[in-house]
Amino acid sequence: MNWLAHILLSEPNVDNRLGNLLGDLVKGKDLDGLNCNLRRGVSRHYAIDKFTDSHPIVKISKKRIDKEYSKFAGILIDVFYDHLLAKNWAMYSDTIFTDFTAEIYESFQKYSGDIPLSARQIIGYMVDGDWLTSYQHLSGVENALDRIDYRIKARMGERIKLLDAMPILERESIDLERDFHSFLPKLQQHIQDWTISSVSSGQGKLICSAPAPP
After folding, report:
1. Distance CA 41, CA 54 (A)
2. Which residues contact 92 (CB under 8 A, 6 or more apart)?
3. Helix crossing, 173-201 with 56-63: angle to 10°?
4. CA torsion 41→195→133→113, rounded to 10°?
5. Could you give the CA distance from residue 59 to residue 41 in angstroms, rounded to a whole number?
6. Residues whose CB is less than 8 angstroms from the CB of residue 109 and which lie 6 or more positions away in sequence, other chains included
7. Is 48 exposed, middle or buried (0-12, 13-18, 19+ CB in 10 A)?
8. Hey, CA dihedral for 70, 51, 43, 123, is it positive or negative?
9. Digits of tens for pLDDT over the chain (214 positions)?
10. CB–CB of 82/5 below 8 Å?
11. CA end-to-end span of the chain
12. Which of 84, 91, 108, 79 lies closest to 10, judged by CA?
């Protein structure tokens, strides 16, 4: 799942929401510098990704991606699912979408805890560019794919041109939306169960006392 879904599935506090995003932005030894509440959010991020990546419905969605983009099908489905979440927000939250995103932006801007500068900069770009709300529109999806493409180029030295995959979203929109609505309630239930299990097993306390995962 992409950022909008990760925030929706977070505990309703700034540390957990921010930590859930940092699961994509902070790696290796930098995780050790995060406070335990942020690391709980990072752990939640990993739990969401693990369940999503292995789920049969998501695998069906990935097969709807053209073969030339199959290597990046997971990335495309993550972004497409965020678009479908934004588009159908009222089905999954009682809070008005723009009120929700405004609250997220304000809380992130006011956050005074220590996070790596590079991650703070990206969070700042997200707020300034209103990335979360933009997922409602195809232009926002295009911008998201363009940003990801830029990061891939920085890492691999070549552009994948994920933007050229946009016709897949329009062509497969009905089936992808059906997949999404079948999958998200299952993910919500899984994360609810994972949270209860983490509390009962004392995993949250372990996260705060043990080194961060690699």
Report:
1. 20
2. 8, 85, 184, 188
3. 150
4. -20
5. 25
6. 124, 127
7. buried
8. positive
9. 799 999 999 999 999 999 999 999 998 888 988 999 999 999 999 999 999 999 999 999 999 999 999 999 999 999 999 999 999 999 999 999 999 999 999 999 999 999 999 999 999 999 999 999 999 999 999 999 999 988 877 777 777 789 999 999 999 999 999 999 999 999 999 999 999 988 766 555 545 644 444 4
10. yes
11. 20
12. 108
Q: Give me the amino acid identity at 173.
A: S
> Which distant-in-sequence residues (6+ apart) come within 8 Å of 204 by Cβ?
40, 198
